[in-house]
Write a structure and sequence with these properties.
Blueprint lengths: L2 H7 L3 E7 L5 E6 L1 H5 L2 H17 L6 E5 L4 H11 L2 E8 L2 E3 L11 E9 L3 H12 L3 E10 L23 E6 L4 E2 L6 H5 L19
The chain binds zinc ion.
Length: about 210
Amino acid sequence: MNIEAIYESADALLKGHFLLSSGNHSGFYLQSAKVLENPKNCEKLSKALADMIRAAKIEASLVCAPALGGVIAGYELARALGVRSIFAERENGEMILRRGFTVAKGERAIICEDIVTTGGSAMETAKLIKAQGGEVTAFAALANRGFCRREGGTNGDSSCKLNKNIPLFALADFAFPVYSPDRCPLCATHGKPTKPGSRPPSVPQPKAQ
Ligand code: ZN
């Protein structure tokens, strides 16, 4: 399966000049929500991810995703694995379980994101599961930005926040270069960077009176 082609055809792999949430600039941006806009894409990708996890004999009875980004991918992975799906959400800066979600003592869980960058939210979610008495057997993501090393991959560096003793499963690495704003070659040729993640759709704004 050509993951990059699937992302490109869904307009989920943007090319241009972007301001990332880290403050760095890049010529590429992954808009994973766009690839999940098509439920058939989501199903196909999640089934492939579930196959990798099963082949590695990872055991779990539950998938937990950090909201908001991971919820759709987590739900679909849980469906492909035939297990429960829950999500954690942030309240006052801290990941918690709400809505009656619980984790049984000793229950095995997979933490799932749509995309893993440095894995901060995934690791916070893993700590939450552990604090509830559960055990995290794997991290999973449709795409990996290459800061963390996935099973079978070669990328990864010291900025990865995931526990190295827990395997990360992802379908592909999208390890494109990022630049600090003072060293960005695109600033000279592409004007100001845009921030696609938080950019609202281009609807006409009502004029102020
Ligand atoms: Zn730039």
